[in-house]
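Journal club prep — side note

Before the paper discussion, L.F. wants everyone to see what a predicted structure for a comparable chain looks like in token form. Sequence:
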Amino acid sequence: MRVHESLQAVTDRIIARSEPTRRDYLDRMAAAAAEGPRRAHLSCGNQAHAYAAMGDDKTSLTDERRANLGIVTAYNDMLSAHQPFEHFPDKIRAAARAAGGTAQVAGGVPAMCDGVTQGQTGMELSLFSRDVIALAAAVGLSHNTFDGALYLGVCDKIVPGLVMAAATFGYIPGVFVPAGPMTSGLPNDEKSKVRQKFATGEVGRDELMKAEMESYHGPGTCTFYGTANTNQMLMEVMGLHLPGASFVNPGTPMRDALTAAATERAMQITALGNDFRPVSEILDEKAFVNGMVGLMATGGSTNLVLHLPAMARAAGIVLDLQDFADISALTPLMAKVYPNGLADVNHFHAAGGLQYMIGQLLDAGLLHEDVKTVAGDGLARYTREPKLDGDAISYADGPTETGNDRILRPCSDPFQPTGGLVQLEGDLGRAVIKVSAVAEDRQVIEAPVRVFHDQAQVKAAFKAGEITEDTIIVVRFQGPRSNGMPELHGLTPVLSILQDRGLRVALVTDGRMSGASGKVPAAIHVAPEAARGGSIALLRDGDRLRLDATNGRLDCLTSLEGRSPAEADLTGNGNGVGRELFETFRQTCGLATEGASVIL
């Protein structure tokens, strides 16, 4: 299949930029893989400790001809998306035995719910939890008893952290095993209306709680297309899921069959199987380009603009904001899933989902087909969809026509000609904006600024009726070095109400917004951030800014010459709810434009 020349140009640019680091990475992975099965290098005493509690599996474990899989699980039952993982290890162990091998839980990783911590102090640990997850997974896999790994994770920071670990242990295979979305509850647009009514005092907390509970109502991923479901799309488009695995509901026969199939496939692709496929060979430059295309084609979460560079760096690949912008410019927006539309991910899946979308993008030359995946060679495998054959999985050709063109459209007739992610450059540095849900007449905003140092100040000004004119709201000292870069999703109802009142408003911040945000223009991830002395720290109330998503500009029309940067009292960010333990993270994290990682 012929690749679009502009997509190939971006890919070639990434390959050239990454050549030294990628070459070093692959050399390290090849040397480690050449050492053979990991257990062969352990002493008898080492192995006895590792197998002591494994009962009837001990014989298989001491037989170095049978593969042993390490399970890295993000299970907890506070997080609805991860609650189904509670019983996955038992299912995986049974499937591994049936395939002639074994499986052990290598370790658990933390999994926090951004929905629980939105607007709360705990959100200041959220972004950094990604690096903690990578570290925790590495601890589990460091026992060196595993021929391959199964990664059980779904949500916001969990999948990126697990990918970082999988790439670091890229000399062994890894298969990502999802749990699936919860069934559809209260429609997301109805929930959003209740939130706005609560923000204006039209309804009380009882009605708000009722709406929230009817929306988030059972096991599985939240059904809107935020970061968690964007992660699932990425794992499929990048070849780390089995085809068709992303959006099957928990607790169904298909879900159980896919989990068993993932285990069986993981056994086959170990060095002891017949189709060795280490992660290092799957996570190459083309895989990351495919992931960025999927992000744009579906209107996915802007949080992945932070995570993909960090994930890529773990595999020796260097991504730049310009790569995202260029891929967005040539990728059509094919899906309308909330907040970009009224449908949820269950509706998207039923309309043809990823199998239809991947087929369309391949035909248009907008995905690299010649990639390795956990399922085999070639991304065309991911145009096929799983079918139940008794308790097992078989594959059939996926849909070639959309099941609902209000949700999913062909490349030739997209919702928008581009993916809607734009890089902004100007006096304030670099930033990104997602405009796939922003009306065209709102994509250029020029207005005086009102400067705040946290989202609570914005809400207070709104409640006091202080924002009555066109305004660009600047919320600074929200970057990773300031306070861990919490999501500012709590501002969405306020900004939406101001816009609905007819004001021309926008947000400019060195922080980030949720994957659930969209219709108000927001320049996010401004770098350098205020705490690093970035130009955003020079702004004062009344300065005039121009946010121009059409031309990719973010400019201050008021002279900043001669000003000293504002300073914020950040001492309170260092204690409470565990923040004391993350001081080193805040001091050593990288730029948002590079993934804001502490460990890469």
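L.F.'s comment for the group: The chain is about 35% helix and 15% strand. Keep this in mind when we get to the figures.
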